[in-house]
Amino acid sequence: MRNLIIDLDAIAYNLGVMRQRAGGVKVCGVVKANAYGHGMVEVARKLEEAGVDYLGVADVAEALELRRAGIDAPILAWLHDPHEMFVEALNEGIELGLANEDHLARVAAAAEITGRLARVHLKVDTGLNRNGASAAEWEGVLRQARALVAEGFIQVVGIFSHLSSTGEAEDLAQIARFDAAVEFARESGLQFELRHLTASDGSLNYPQAQYEMVRIGVALYGLSPFADHDSKEYGLRPAMTATANVTQVKRVPAGEGVSYGYLHRTAAETTLALVPVGYAEGLPRDASGKASVSINGKTYPISSRIAMDQFVIDVGNDDVNMGDLVTIFGDPAAGVPSADELAAAADTINYEIVTRMGGRFKRTYLGDLD
């Protein structure tokens, strides 16, 4: 009675759109956080089938899950437990994004234990001030990396960073810092193949910063990385549709309160329809009284409070019955509310909406997996 319908063909199509927009450079398809709620293994298989160059995950555990599922594509993991030993990662051919000397030392130790050359990407912090070597740390990281290359423990595959997406001036300043950090690495004698800086937003806005590879996340799933531009403007197709079935309808008189706190009271005799989706499935409680859903081709506001398991729709005198399909969000081209609209109603971003969808939803996949 609760379904997330994932269109894998749309994801493959969006990969092609973003590859073309990136001028044919390598694409790292980001499938961290269960592929932004779309199903990491299923999405990775589709992307591998579609010829993605890399798969990007946050941590080694996600990368190992992909390997156990039979995914052979290159995988890059970049957020690490401070005590991670990296042995299993190297045994499974996982490439590692590293940002400090301690992790470099741990990776070198794992390389010595396994007898495998560690393929690493060095991350420099260009102003986001999250993961990455600071300007003060960068020289030391490069020095250690050069020594470990000489000892035969590591190969530096790439140098990367991440934009803050604060605004054009800030992004351009970060691009300049990245270029300077890369040039410093080259001048120090370090050899590498790839530079990658931009995610979906930067790849669309700054073609000069696409370098040898781009990392594409939210755009793969058919969503715009910008609140003021929708996916249609970029030729992207939303891949997730969230649906449920009406589980109960009832006629109630005027003046009745509906659900917790009586956020909604009936203005006249009306029909109420119960939908079995709540914040346990990831539907934001903050969207109460502001979001809308579609039933039988018509849009209705979620006028009641969103509870843990359910919400109630006031459908007036419309012919709505038990079992009718409710679309919570999907492709707006189909005439239904979008993830962007739900995000706006909850004062958040579309990334969060799709990523948080789960709970008792059942995922159904469209698109052949050869």
Give a quick summary of the entry.
With 370 residues, this protein is an alpha/beta fold.
Order of helices and strands: EHEHHEHEHEHEHEHEHEEEEEEEEEEHHE
- The CATH top-level class label of the largest domain: Alpha Beta
What is the strand arrangement across the widest sheet? 8-7-6-5-4-3-2-9
Radius of gyration: 24 Å
Question: Any idea of the CATH topology of the largest domain?
Answer: TIM Barrel
Question: How widely separated are the two ends?
Answer: 28 Å
Which class best fits the helix and strand makeup? alpha/beta
SS elements, strand count: 19
Q: Uncertain regions: pLDDT < 50 for 5+ in a row?
A: none
What is the fold's blueprint, element by element?
Elements: E1 2-7, H1 8-21, E2 26-30, H2 32-36, H3 40-49, E3 54-57, H4 60-68, E4 75-77, H5 87-91, E5 95-98, H6 101-114, E6 118-123, H7 135-150, E7 154-160, H8 168-187, E8 194-196, H9 200-205, E9 213-216, E10 240-245, E11 248-252, E12 257-258, E13 264-265, E14 270-275, E15 292-295, E16 298-301, E17 311-316, E18 325-329, H10 339-345, H11 350-356, E19 362-366
Parallel strand pairs: 1-19, 2-3, 2-9, 3-4, 4-5, 5-6, 6-7, 7-8
Antiparallel strand pairs: 1-10, 10-18, 11-14, 12-13, 14-17, 15-16, 15-18
Helix pairs in contact: 1-3, 6-7, 10-11
